[in-house]
Amino acid sequence: MVLFVWWPFVGVWAEEVSDFAEQAQTTPVYERIVSLDLCMDWLLAFYADPAQVAALSPLHRRFPLPIQSQNWPVHDGSLEQIVSLNADLVVVGEFNALLLRSRLERLGHPVEVLSLPRSLEEVEIYLNQFFQLLGLTASKRIAEDQWPREFDKDAPRLLLLGANGVGTGQQTFEDQLLTQAGWQNYVLASGYVRLDLEQLAIDPPDAILWSAPESAALANQFAQHPVLSKLLPASAWLSLDYWRWQCPGPWTYELIDQLAELRKALE
Q1: What is the CA radius of gyration of the chain?
Q2: Which residues face 100 on adjacent strands?
Q3: Least confident of 27-31, 39-43, 110-114, 208-212
Q4: What is the CATH number of domain 148-266?
Q5: How far is residue 266's CA from residue 260's CA, in Å, rounded to a whole number?
Q6: What's the pLDDT tens digit per position in 213-256?
Q7: Of all residues in the chain, what percent carry a pLDDT higher than 70?
Q8: Which CATH architecture has domain 16-137?
């Protein structure tokens, strides 16, 4: 899964948050919110008043956003501690903390499960649902006449290369981001596919975007293969902050803008 702070982080968001979320007087605001996963941590760190947050998940310390939120309270992931926090809302993504949230629900604690977006349209639904929980309203980021972007057969072909030599293909969330930014997806197959070095050498893409973590690991050695290093000039090896691909959020739209800028720079 991709997925997707805007920069310069603190200054811009303090001034521009009203463009995406405005205070709504009619929606109740929860006063003690607990997050059970990383994506909810990030959204709370972005939009919530720290006084609203009883605790973020332990993952927040391992995968922090590039904004100052290290001093926010963090629970240890145990049922006992979360219950002791006496939260009036627990937020979690649909595929995370299944057993923990089930136990909390059985104990009568309010748990809000947010469905993982699978398209840009669903990102807006996802964010609006989150804003409503915080007592905020949001404006649409992508106008109806701008989505989906028309396919351009002459657009440069971009290979989104992940760990273990896996390429991101058609009918994926990442594919929508590439298309919306004006690229063609190099991988024509659907889903996530194992790439073939020989095929890449015969028919190389116009650019490669490396989207795996920078940590040294066997899973990343495919991208370091000499065949790949000789395929394209250094200017065609592109990179973006990996964290932007990890969770859907407001940074998803910034990611599209950055992909579009990379395309312009390639021309």
Answers
A1: 20
A2: none
A3: 27-31
A4: 3.40.50.1980
A5: 10
A6: 666 666 677 777 888 888 899 889 998 877 888 889 888 988 99
A7: 79
A8: 3-Layer(aba) Sandwich (3.40)
Residue 114 burial (CB count, 10 A) = 21
Lookup result for tokens 């299944």: 98
Residues 250 and 6: beta-carbon distance below 8 Å: yes
Please tell me the distance from the alpha carbon of residue 21 to that of residue 257, in angstroms, as a whole number: 20
Lowest mean pLDDT among 27-36, 139-148, 251-260: 139-148
Domain residue spans of the chain: 16-137, 148-266
Q: Rounded to an integer, what distance in angstroms lies between the CA atom of residue 267 and that of residue 264? A: 5
Identify the residue whose tokens are 């760990």: 163
- Length of the chain equals 267
For residue 194, what are its two tokens? 């194992």
Q: What is the mean pLDDT of residues 195-202?
A: 92
Q: Which of 168, 164, 157, 180 is nearest to 220 (CA)?
A: 164
